[in-house]
Design goal:
- By secondary structure, the protein is an alpha+beta fold.
- The protein folds into 2 domains: 2-87, no CATH class; 111-215, no CATH class.
- It contains 6 helices and 7 strands, in the order βββββββαααααα.
- The chain has helices at residues 80-110, 115-125, 129-157, 159-165, 169-192, 202-215; strands at residues 2-4, 7-12, 15-20, 35-39, 42-51, 57-63, 74-77.
- It has a 7-stranded mixed beta sheet.
- It is elongated, with a radius of gyration of 30 Å.
- The N and C termini lie far apart (78 Å).
- The relative contact order is 0.09.
Length: 216
């Protein structure tokens, strides 16, 4: 038995049997334009492929006949470097997909970060700061609408309603007082698609900072 990377190799007569956790795209069974797989200087093609329990694969590589005049669909050299590179790429893609799924849930929260941090994350992760800011704006709108609806319900039901949900209308008033100014100011920037795309109350810091600089 030989090993190449994470793959195990056995000989059955002239056939090379490969058991691998990797679903190599070059190791597909083809009726025409078969991929030529070179191993230790000998050429093979994939005669059979089977999926095994646990997500691994069983490949049967058969010698490429010298009399075969068919033009190969491509050629790879089956080496430890090839196997390890594929496994590394597969792990990287899997990690990126996991990050992508996580960002679907985190992206609205990322939009509340200040513009400088969003732009750095944009360069590293490939999504746009505008998208994140827009999603955070929608979350903020939803929070305002929910607070207003609860406030109306509690005002209608009186102390009994407040005791039931454990929220006083006065608390909701302060929530609205904090969120609405930020909502209006950030909406203006989103609507004009101008940078910086402000995070939560970043605009207030900028106003105060500019005022302080002018007074110097």
């Amino acid at each position: 038995m030989q090993t190449i990377g994470h793959d195990r190799l056995n000989w059955q007569g002239t056939d090379l049997i490969v058991q691998s956790p990797n679903a190599y795209p070059e190791f597909e069974v083809r009726a025409h334009r078969k991929f030529q797989i070179v191993f230790e200087g000998r050429a093979f093609f994939v005669a059979n492929k089977m999926s095994l329990p646990g997500g691994s694969y069983h490949y049967t590589l058969r010698p490429w006949s010298p009399d075969d005049t068919e033009i190969p669909g491509g050629q790879i050299h089956f080496t430890p470097e090839f196997s390890l590179h594929f496994a590394k790429t597969r792990r990287l893609v899997k990690t990126q997909k996991s990050i992508g799924v996580l960002l679907v849930f985190l992206l609205p929260m990322v939009g509340f970060l200040w513009s400088e941090f969003k732009e750095k994350l944009e360069d590293r992760l490939g999504w746009t700061a505008y998208t994140a800011t827009d999603l955070s704006f929608k979350v903020e709108v939803s929070a305002v609408v929910l607070a207003m609806a609860l406030m109306a319900i509690l005002n209608f039901t009186g102390p009994a309603g407040a005791a039931l949900v454990g929220i006083h209308p006065g608390h909701l008033f302060w929530v609205l007082l904090v969120l609405i100014p930020d909502l209006l100011y950030r909406y203006d920037g989103l609507n004009r698609e101008e940078k910086p795309l402000y995070g939560f109350y970043e605009w207030l810091y900028e106003i105060l900072f500019k005022t302080a600089k002018k007074s110097e």
